[in-house]
Amino acid sequence: MSATSFSDRDTLVRFVKFVLIGIVNTLAYFVIANLFVYGLGMGRSIAAFATYALLVPVSFLAHRRITFRSKGSAMREWAKFCVMQFVSIAVIAAVNREMSGLPQSDSWVVFGIISVLIPLINFAAMQLWVFAARHGR
Question: Domain locations in the chain?
Answer without folding.
Answer: 3-130
